[in-house]
Amino acid sequence: MGENHTVTMSQTCLNCLKYTLCVFNFICWLCGVCVMGFAIYLMTTSTYASLVPSLSSLNVANVLIIAGTIVTCVSFLGFLGALRENRCLLISFFILLFLVMLLQLAMAILLLIYERDIDLFLEKELKQSLNQAKHNATSDWDNVQRLLHCCGIHNSSDWRNNSRLHFPNSCCKNDCTSNPPDIWPEGCYTKLKDWFEKNFLNVGVGVIILCIIEVLGMCFSMTLFCHISRSGLGFK
């Protein structure tokens, strides 16, 4: 009687683990689909390649497409593997999730080590793209400045051309017809850097929480994998 009760409790816990993994991966899959949808929207409305000319292929839309694809594929493997109790899918989910976590940690370490070099590279690229935008009636800088409520890279003087200051309407809070015009005081790059510095702790906590979730996902999948192996269910 006691042995049957133990088996029943064990099976109940494993079923709970199984469906928890299914729900977790389904939510992640939905998030991945939303990210891909937003990326497609960006691709159809505007392009962001000109902001970093040297990395034109890695614009915002393409990066989101790549991230959304990875999330949807990995979470689909985890969901289907847990639902069908398939060892092959579960171990594939574990390996891919482990590789994603390693990639995240490697990127974080590289950002910390080469922070100064990355900062100089971005400044150089943004200056180049802004110089190109001075000759265009509309540019991606207009979208960025309207979104972030900023003007130029460091301030509005970045729009100076041949000793004359010509800035786009997106630099102004309302419009640029007033005298003097009501210009956003902060530059876009400066504003982003200040935001990250002020929210560095929150960003760090978010990355740690994401890593914890990934570790839990790997633990759950491996626990379910081991149970299926012990039960002799094999590859379904």
Describe this structure in words.
The chain is mainly α and about 240 residues long. It has one domain (about 1-230). It has helices at about 1-45, 60-85, 85-115, 115-135, 140-150, 190-200, 200-230; strands spanning about 160, 165. The chain has a two-stranded antiparallel sheet. A hairpin with a 2-residue loop joins β1 and β2 (about 165). The longest helix is centred in the first third of the chain and has 44 residues, at about 1-45. The mean pLDDT is about 80.
Structure described in brief:
The chain contains seven helices and two strands.
Order of helices and strands: HHHHHEEHH
Helix-strand category: mainly alpha
Question: Low-confidence parts lasting 5 or more residues at pLDDT below 50?
Answer: none
> How many beta-strand elements?
2
Mean pLDDT: 81
Task: Tell me the quaternary state.
Answer: single chain
Keywords:
236 residues, 2 strands, elongated, two-stranded antiparallel sheet, mainly alpha
